Amino acid sequence: MIDPGTGYGTQALRESYKCDGIALERSRADNRYNCSIANTLALSYLCVTNIVTGRTPVALTQNLLRRLQNPDLFAAITDPAWLGLPFGGATFEVFNPATGELLAEIPDMGVADTRAAIERATEAQTEWAARTARERSDTLWRWHQLIVRHTDDLAAILTAEMGKPLAEAKSEVSHAAAYLQWYAEEANRIYGETIPAPSRDRRMIVIKQPIGVVGAITPWNFPASMVARKISPALAAGCTVVLKPAEQTPLVAGAMFALAEKAGFPPGVVNLIYASEGDAVGRELCTHPQVRKISFTGSTEVGRLLMRQCSDQVKKLSLELGGNAPFIVFDDADVDAAVDGAIQAKFRNAGQTCVSANRLYVQAGVHDEFAEKFTARVRTLSVGDGFDPNVAIGPLIDTRALAKIEAHVADAVERGGSVHCGGKRIEGAGTFFSPTVLTGIARDMRIAQEETFGPLAPIIRFTDADQVVREANDTIYGLAAYFYASNLSRVWRVAEALEYGMVGINTGRMSSEAAPFGGVKQSGMGREGSRHGLEDYLEMKYLCMGGI
Predict the structure, then answer these.
(1) Residue 208 and residue 232: Cα distance in Å, rounded?
(2) Contact yes or no for 454/393 (Cβ under 8 A)
(3) How many angstroms separate the CA atoms of 383 and 405, rounded?
(4) 538-545 vs 203-210, strand pairing mode
(5) In the prediction, which pLDDT does 142 show?
(6) Nearest CA among 235, 219, 239, 281 for reference residue 52
(7) DSSP per residue over 248-314, as a string?
(8) Known catalytic residue: 471?
(9) Are the C-beta atoms of 544 and 204 separated by less than 8 Å?
(10) Residue 84 contacts by C-beta under 8 Å, 6 or more apart in sequence?
(11) Element of type H or E holding 336
């Protein structure tokens, strides 16, 4: 359901910093850092434990450490006094889904830890909010620079615990850094407004203030970029954060928080909670009166639960929930470009993304050509361990994900669908499934109604352009949609008619830190990224001054 994190400390802001042998100086002239390596990075980075619990070291195995250029990144530095949060001694294990190897054993935290982290965040909130926008911006910039510097190690941790190919993992870490850079800049652009008063003796203005302590819950499929996307606008706005990452992929969040500590965030501003079961931690975040906002990415079912738990306090929510994205190819489309886009939109991260193309509608005039070319491309996609440079698709996150895909394939075949390639799990170690293409799909099949979250592409033939838009909209979800067409009039009509928060037109990938990410209907509320993402962490206050 939900997931892990707790807090840590650092020293005060200075114009010049020294972090792990890296001297970082902010150049105000060009808003960038000049980074010089003072020593080799014999990184004495805080281990996750120091950040997380301050009591028990996070034990990393050689299965992970051997992948790191700087293995001390997660060195088990024991410092029981670091935080002193109540911890019962329980731990849980993190595994590599591609190999089944044990990667780490980490503290299994609960309600008491979460409550203590919330109290730390509450204590730190006033001072962090009082800092100037420039000071908050500087700290975010330093974190951005450290993440960029350690992209290779962060990507290796991400691939080990989540399974995606290393090239995709590096891209995700770069995307995470881009969010930090974006909101470091946006921190300086939180503006109020003046309002013409109805009388001469009054002045009316609006100011914006941080909402307060934020509880953030991140998913396993993008464990680095989601951390940055949620907490960088919160920190830029002046909020403190308690973050729980997914239990399947907590390690890259811990590594990012270790770098955040080095960047200079004061004690209690960023807090990390690890937990193997998220229910109790999530409930505490939703019901604790000091937490003023919840930001969650995950399933619609869990999003509904969090809304209910937050309702008694009318707590503000940002929810990025499930999707059932249509990918429509009209007969005036560039078929080769549509194939390229569909490969991107369907098979990135093994199809385990909330914006994955889940239903591929192809107009009758180009259906056979598209299906043939698409299937040929899918057959070339290699599956395996993400550390193999030739691999395009990694494992699914767990055996439940495998079982769901198998059920979707079986249901489609039983009801008349045809398997063009793939269609079965790959035997052996790891949770691998062959990239699969199905045709002869009807709209009442499970694969057309449910989010698959895997490397399974169902192609649905259509004839009527208006009808396909109605079918595309016939879902409770409204996160992302894609379509390919060349007629300008059709492009505008379809783009406006699709009931989705994001629409990709002649492209299979549209995520950017500069754009508002989010859905409509039961795919969530609020936006992440862009200037709009900052507004979700601010409250508007109207000031009316009389007697002037």
Answers:
(1) 17
(2) no
(3) 16
(4) antiparallel
(5) 98
(6) 281
(7) TS-HHHHHHHHHHHHHTPPTTSEEEE--S--HHHHHHHHH-TTEEEEEEES-HHHHHHHHHHHHTTT
(8) no
(9) yes
(10) 54, 55
(11) helix 335-347
* Annotated catalytic residue within 320, 471, 513, 528: 320
Give the span between the Cα atoms of 156 and 163, in whole angstroms: 10
Which residues are 19's β-sheet partners? Answer: 22
Whether residue 320 lies in the annotated active site: yes
- Written in H, E and C, the secondary structure of 507-522 is CCCCCCCCCCECCCHH
Phi, psi of 111, deg, nearest 5: -65, -45
What is residue 87's predicted lDDT score, i.e. its pLDDT? 56
Q: Is 209 helix (H, G, I), strand (E, B) or coil?
A: strand
- Among the listed residues 354, 471, 513, 528, the single catalytic one is 354
φ and ψ at 94, to 5 degrees?
-120, 130
Q: Are 109 and 51 in contact, with CB atoms under 8 Å apart?
A: no
How far apart are the C-alpha atoms of 18 and 38, rounded to whole Å?
9
The helix/strand/coil state of 490 is: helix
- Under DSSP, the state recorded for 223 is T
Give the distance, in angstroms, between the CA of residue 506 and the centroid of all CA atoms in the same chain: 24
**Is 269 within 8 Å of 123 (Cβ atoms)?**
no
> Is 88's pLDDT higher than 90?
no
Looking only at the bridges linking them, the beta strands covering 291-297 and 316-320 are parallel
> The tokens of 222 are what?
């993008």
Residue 461 identity (one-letter amino acid): R
Query: What are the pLDDT digits (tens) for 202-225?
Result: 999 999 999 999 999 999 999 999
Task: Count other Cβ atoms within 10 Å, centred on residue 95.
Answer: 16
Q: Which of 70-84, 154-168, 420-434, 468-482 has the lowest mean pLDDT?
A: 70-84
Sole residue written with tokens 């590096």 = 170
Tell me the pTM.
Answer: 0.88
Alpha carbon separation from 342 to 395, 484, 491, 501, 509 (Å, rounded)? 20, 10, 18, 19, 9
Number of alpha carbons in the 13 Å side-chain half-sphere of residue 490: 18
Report which residue type is found at 418. Answer: S
